[in-house]
Design brief:
glycosidase; 47 strands; eight-stranded parallel sheet; Glyco_hydro_2_N; Jelly Rolls; AbfB_ABD_sf; eight-stranded antiparallel sheet; alpha+beta; hydrolase; Immunoglobulin-like; about 800 residues
């Protein structure tokens, strides 16, 4: 998140049931466990009785989490098999020093997959770089799995995870906090009751790995104004067993190609599957649409004639099956896909991202994925879905998943509900320059994350780095990501204007952060201009604060009414000016929920309160999206030529903009006026100092001095070369009735207005006298005329 907060305010820091059911080849909304649950599964021996801890805040789902089988839904919706056995539930647990071996006793219990820092785990205490976590339980393999390989799968575990089965290590330790991993444990099984022991070491910010917003700190609410949050150590996504054939499919890489109505599929495999025959079928409602045969590791072209395109308005998903054939036959998996394309192209002379060939403005929020009860892990699948559904309810069509990678079911809900996803790669610590080992680990984990989610139709953009946190090799990394996944857009640096961030100069978008904004992201000839963060409007809801009285925001609002007016005003400003005049193509509002002491969410941290008027925000977002579909070329003014700027308000149409003693006024000008007045009322049109799609107005008789706003008053002033000056002196025109309206490049929605003959930067209905809505549109509409002083 943007560091303007700190620049402005330096003091701020901050016994089981068993069942079996078949899974269709297609994913259904909430796949339950489909294999026999492991019989006799549970803690390996009696330990201290498990109880949940009281959550700092209670979400609607806190008390709905099963003790023995939390998060029972099938965890991998794009690669499904009929049999599986979740290992979520109560495990024996211990914490030792980081260098210690396996403890002789496990004196605690923990509910997996909730991290020990969380209340839902039943542990709820700080874990530091000096600690190592230990998990233990027993299981037996169902007899129906005989003859098949048994895979032990992890959705995610943070950070270095080592696994032993029956006292023997299962492969190499896995390093990474956000990618899924698996072990074939077949050779380690004993045919009866098996014991699995897992150790996890997580140094968080004291290591060099990707950590996102995690920091070691107190796990219960405390004062502070930090934009980083409680760490999440150890297992935080579903752990499960799955039987497979010896030769089996491990991944489906699916890329829709609208140009020839095909789905390009590469089937990945293991256990001798490479080069084996494979058949992929695409269907809809049980009817085959197209199929193709080929080999594992090679690209198949599956015809999808007359494809129904995936869009946020119609997130249509096709069913996909893939099965090995020939000698390697025996494995069959299900999944789904959406047919859509994403690219950047010229639209009306402006570089825009286009979905299925058409520009649609992407309006979304920053979604950090934190929970007061589960921290990194949503308490239930319904909770995981809720935040995404709330985006839809509020009219957003996009979400930026910020500095975290969610479970695969989160992507399933985004795919099914229809939300465009910008996915951040979690950053390394912002206060360090990563060494060679840290860079290699970060890049390896990034590629693993891309592989894991490359087939999600909702995911349209990778965000490599954020505000310079742990930054290095920006251009090379952007090129690496684009080459590794050419089917998506790449953002080399979100918030390139912030915090000593460095722009790699490449990728598909140029991304600024502006608080409160919305602000200006200068247009470019190759990349689309986007606003990776803005807003941060705050309102603390009594009874729904993480630390009562400790919340902060980028701009506190005195009431719910003020919050609604201010937020809708920001959206309207983007619609009226930032998008059509400034060339802005996407915006990310901070943020969907409060997070710990950040009180700038559209919802409270406990998800109990939606702070804003849902219908009003939805209407504003829908109006913005609708306006983008008919966005034409930007207004053109005669660059390099002299003009005079006339008032169009009825009764005042003989008045023109002029400067007097450095301030901007309007005054009657006619042929009989003095030459000095005529020169004062003449301006040279220049390309916008801060945005090439906009304009700056240089004084005719004071070269080098421009019409700019400062403290709301508009004046003629010499430039100092600063970014602030350039933005203040740049005006973005839109077509009005009988003339043009000019908004400030850095404050879309605030306009050049004459009021009592003075020039002001004004926003209709705001708090100042010059914001009076009476006559506002007329007073902010101007005619560009021939110059009084050529």
């Amino acid at each position: 998140m943007l560091r303007h907060l700190f620049l402005r305010f330096p003091s701020l820091l901050r016994p089981r049931r068993t069942w079996r059911r078949r899974v269709a080849a297609v994913v259904v909304p909430a796949l339950a466990a489909t294999g026999l649950l492991v019989s006799g599964a549970g803690p390996s021996h009696a330990a201290q009785a498990w109880d949940p801890k009281p959550a700092p805040m209670t979400t609607p789902w806190t008390n709905q989490v099963p003790v023995d089988n939390p998060l029972p839904e099938y965890p991998r919706p794009q690669l499904t098999r009929p049999d599986w056995s979740p290992l979520n539930g109560i495990w024996d647990f211990a914490v030792t020093s980081r260098d210690a071996g396996q403890p002789a006793t496990f004196g605690e219990q923990i509910r997996v997959p909730f991290v020990p820092e969380s209340a839902l785990s039943g542990v709820q205490r700080k874990i530091t770089q000096n600690d190592k976590l230990w998990y233990k339980r027993t299981f037996t393999v169902p007899s129906g799995w005989n003859g098949r390989r048994v895979q032990l799968n992890f959705g995610a575990s943070d950070w270095e995870t080592t696994v032993w089965v029956n006292g023997k290590q299962a492969g190499a330790a896995h390093r990474g906090g956000y990618d899924a991993f698996s072990y074939d444990i077949t050779p380690l099984l004993n045919g009866g009751t098996n014991t699995v022991v897992i150790s996890v070491y997580d140094p968080t910010e004291t290591g060099g790995q990707a950590i996102g917003k995690q920091r070691v700190q107190d796990v219960t609410p405390h004062p502070g104004k930090s934009i980083v949050y409680t760490a999440s150590s150890g297992i935080w996504q579903t752990v499960w067993l799955e039987p497979t054939a010896p030769a089996h499919i491990t991944r489906l890489d699916m890329v829709p190609r609208l140009a020839d109505n095909t789905l390009r599929v590469t089937v990945r495999g293991a256990g001798g599957a490479d080069g084996a025959g494979v058949k992929v079928t695409v269907s809809s409602g049980g009817t085959t649409v197209g199929s193709a045969t080929g080999t594992v590791g090679g690209e198949l072209s599956v015809p999808v004639p007359n494809a129904r395109l995936w869009t946020p308005e119609d997130p249509f998903l096709y069913d996909v099956t893939a099965e090995l054939t020939g000698a390697a036959g025996g494995d069959k998996v299900g999944g789904y896909t959406g047919m859509r394309s994403i690219a950047v192209k010229d639209v009306g002379g402006v570089r825009r991202p286009v979905l299925n060939g058409e520009f649609v403005f992407q309006t979304g929020t920053l979604d950090q994925g934190y929970w007061p009860d589960g921290i990194y892990t949503a308490p239930t699948d319904e909770a995981l879905k809720y935040d995404l559904q709330k985006h839809k309810d509020l009219g957003f069509n996009m979400v930026r998943k910020h500095i975290k990678v969610e479970p695969q079911r989160w992507f399933y809900w985004a795919d099914r509900l229809g939300l465009l996803v910008w996915q951040d790669m979690p950053s390394m610590d912002s206060g360090k320059t990563p060494d060679t080992a840290a860079r290699a680990q970060w890049e390896s984990e990034y590629r693993a994350i891309i592989d894991q989610h490359r087939s999600s139709p909702a995911l349209i953009q990778w965000v490599d780095q954020n505000e310079g946190w742990g930054q290095y090799d920006q251009a090379r990394i952007a090129d690496m990501v684009k080459a590794y996944d050419p089917s998506r857009l790449v953002d080399n640096m979100s918030g390139v204007n912030c915090c000593a961030a460095k722009d790699g100069g490449n990728g598909d978008v140029i991304d600024n952060h502006n608080y409160v904004g919305p602000g200006n992201t200068p247009a470019e000839p190759v990349r689309a201009s986007v606003l990776g963060e803005y807003g941060g409007l705050g309102y603390r809801v009594p009874g729904h604060e993480w630390y009562p009285g400790g919340g902060f925001s980028y701009e506190d609002q005195p009431s719910i009414s003020a919050l609604n007016n201010r937020f809708v005003g920001l959206l309207d400003g983007i619609r009226q000016s930032g998008m059509p005049a400034g060339g802005l193509s996407a915006s990310v509002y901070t943020q969907i929920t409060d997070v710990e002491n950040e009180a700038n969410g559209l919802m409270s941290y406990d998800r109990q309160v939606v702070k804003v008027d849902q219908a009003r925000v939805r209407a504003a977002n829908q109006a913005l999206i609708a306006a983008s579909r008919s966005a034409g070329a930007t207004v053109k003014l005669p660059v390099g030529q002299n003009v005079s700027i006339r008032v169009t308000t009825p009764g005042y149409t003989d008045r023109y903009i002029r400067h007097y003693d450095g301030l901007g006024f309007t005054e009657v000008v006619n042929s009989a006026s003095a030459d000095l007045l005529k020169r004062d009322a003449t301006w040279t049109v220049r390309q916008g100092l801060a945005n090439k799609l906009c304009y700056s107005f240089e004084s005719r008789n004071y070269p080098g001095e421009y019409l700019r706003h400062r403290d709301f008053r508009v004046r003629r002033e010499a430039g100092d070369g600063s970014t602030v000056y350039k933005e203040d002196a740049t005006w973005c025109p839109t077509q009005g009735s009988g003339g043009i309206r000019m908004s400030a490049a850095n404050f879309p929605g605030q306009y050049l207005r004459h009021f009592n003959a003075e020039l002001w930067l004004a926003q209709s209905g705001s708090t100042h006298a010059w914001d009076n809505p009476a006559g506002f549109t007329e007073d902010t509409t101007w005619a560009i005329e021939s110059p009084w002083a050529p």
